[in-house]
Specification:
This protein is an alpha/beta fold. The protein contains 12 helices and 18 strands. Helices cover 28% and strands 14% of the residues. Strands 1, 4, 5, 6, 7, 8, 9, 10, 11 and 14 form a 10-stranded mixed beta sheet that branches. A two-stranded antiparallel sheet has the order 2-3. Helix 7 runs parallel beside helix 9 and helix 9 packs parallel to helix 10.
């Protein structure tokens, strides 16, 4: 029997900013620009109730929709996605089953801090699965499209991060409500303890999920482990299982996996703090109760709103030694589905759901509380409109703001060059799947590796660009449209979003200055580079309703 030790508070790194992604998007075999690897578009396509189903195979010029899905801004034609915004890098397969999907994973991983580039200031990436039961991990079970896509996405993140030697940056994650929402679709029943629908079916499925996740984490250097113990992340709703039921599930999972693990959740109702009895860390999930708080400005209102979500956790955590409160940060909420077909508008804040002052107010709260662990909600929930991922109308503004706020929270100096490098990386990536017709383009390479030279890969030049490494000062892009994106000066055409390249691009990764302590005497640049890389690794390794139809 595995004895769990509640010591996460003692093992936490000095900073842990986690980006949470849904990763439930696909490109089907019948896409007009060539076959994708998936059985469907996943959650890029949705319709129900008063919301007509969209068709990602078609194009439209609206790049920003408002309430009632009326068009607020037009631009170059984009694929029709189930969102009020359009992804800047276009639609894609999250399953990472082909080169196109793997390069998109690399683009996302470039937001994670590396020794040579702070990216977007993210420390780890949590990739949510809709369970492991109905995925390639258990081929004898019923198939589930979004389950397979998100499972394969997790494998893709681990594979790419392993290859780039990015240790401890991927967190296996799970939607613990999936089986309760869709159990009847995958043969589990309603799991409500009605006749023929024992809740135990879903409890057993969750137990297997966590066994698989812990095993997965131990098998990959890129999976985040603290003192050798995997950290798992789960979205949960307290309405489905009691703390006692959760305790049994977690004990059984640890015993079956043969290992202890840390278990951090985002709770749909964080006022129910008794769950600290069984969880190592809790963050709230984004709540749409904006009207329950107030403030003289949007920023002040957002700080008060964040306090309403987090204060119950902070008030209770002292009663549970070793537990941690994680902050929850969101750029807003703008629900394309109108409450999943219920014809109810859900925006946060109402009327201006991407107001940049919301994020600033949230971070004012985190500053005041001394928060060190954060979960960004979300990277890519395009349907409910809480995405940090850059979009066509807003560009990279929200992601850059997040980078700035994380830097300030963790005491780092402003880095305008890094902000520019982040923007350049995204705006130069183009769109492999677009509205230009013909076959899909070839997404550019995103180099996640850092040069091993004594200067840590930096050349001290313009905005901290990376050395060219083994490829020389310039690396020519192939005529086929393959380019290299490193946040430096790679030139990518993109045109109307065709993902092609025009000529040359730098190889290696764009490099940022790492704020080492001031020195009274000159220090050789090689030593500074080594110290910077060691510091990075040490800092990394040291002690609303959501639905995805199967």
């Amino acid at each position: 029997m595995i004895t769990h030790v509640f010591d996460l508070a003692m093992r936490m790194p000095v900073r842990l900013a986690v980006m949470f992604s849904m990763s439930w998007f696909g490109i089907p075999h019948g896409d007009p620009q060539g076959a994708g690897p998936d059985p469907s578009y996943g959650n890029s396509q949705w319709g129900g109730g008063c919301v007509a189903q969209n068709n990602p195979a078609t194009c439209g010029t609206c790049v920003l929709e408002g309430t009632g899905d009326t068009c607020l801004q037009n631009g170059a034609a984009q694929r029709d996605t189930a969102s009020r915004r359009r992804p800047l890098a276009g639609i894609y397969s999250a399953s990472a089953q082909d080169t196109e999907g793997l390069r998109r994973v690399d683009l996302m991983l470039s937001n994670v801090r590396r020794p040579c580039d702070d990216g977007a200031g993210i420390d780890a990436w949590a990739v949510q699965m809709n369970g492991t039961r109905d995925t390639p991990a258990h081929p004898s079970n019923p198939s589930c499209s979004t389950c397979a896509i998100s499972y394969d996405a997790t494998q893709g993140f681990l594979k790419e991060a392993d290859a780039a030697h990015l240790d401890g940056v991927v967190i296996p994650a799970d939607d613990a409500t999936f089986y309760f929402h869709f159990g009847t679709d995958v043969g589990l029943g309603a799991c409500d303890d009605s006749a023929g629908n024992p809740k135990q079916n879903c409890e057993d499925a969750l137990t297997q999920d966590f066994v698989d996740m812990a095993t997965m984490s131990l098998a990959h250097p890129s999976a985040l482990k603290l003192d050798g113990k995997p950290l798992l992340y789960v979205y949960m709703d307290p309405g489905y299982l009691t703390p006692a039921q959760w305790g049994t599930i977690l004990q059984n999972a640890r015993d079956t996996a043969g290992t202890d693990f840390y278990f951090v959740v985002s709770s749909q109702n964080a006022t129910q703090t008794a769950f600290f009895e069984v969880f190592d860390g809790i963050s709230p999930w984004v709540q749409l109760d904006w009207s329950n708080s107030s403030g003289s400005t949007v920023r002040a209102h957002a700080q008060a709103w964040a306090a309403g979500m987090h204060d119950p956790l902070y008030a209770a955590v002292g009663q549970y030694p070793g537990r941690v409160v994680f902050g929850a940060a969101t750029p807003g909420f703008d629900d394309y589905t109108e409450n999943w077909g219920g014809c109810t508008e859900r925006q946060l804040p109402p009327g201006d759901p991407r107001d940049p002052q919301v994020l600033l107010g949230e971070f004012d709260y985190f500053h005041a509380k001394g928060t060190t662990g954060l979960v960004m909600q979300t990277w890519d929930d395009w349907t409910e409109g809480s995405e940090f991922e850059p979009d066509v109308a807003g560009g990279t503004s929200m992601l850059v703001s997040l980078r700035q706020q994380l830097g300030a929270l963790y005491g780092e100096a402003p880095d305008p060059a890094g902000d520019t490098r982040l923007t350049d990386r995204w705006t130069s990536f183009g769109q492999a799947r677009n509205c230009a017709g013909g076959d899909a383009g070839t997404s550019p390479v995103v180099d996640l590796t850092c040069a091993a030279s004594g200067d840590g890969g930096t050349d001290g030049g313009d905005a901290g660009r990376a050395d060219a490494g083994a490829g020389g000062a310039d690396a020519s892009a192939a005529d086929s449209g393959v380019g290299v994106v490193d946040g430096g000066d790679a030139s990518v055409d993109g045109g109307e979003g065709n993902g092609g390249t025009s000529g040359k691009g730098s190889s290696g990764c764009g490099c940022a200055t790492i704020g080492l302590p001031p020195w009274s005497d000159p220090v050789p640049s090689a030593l500074l580079g080594v110290l910077a890389m060691v510091l990075r690794r040490r800092l990394r390794s040291g002690p609303a309703s959501r639905h995805a139809a199967p």
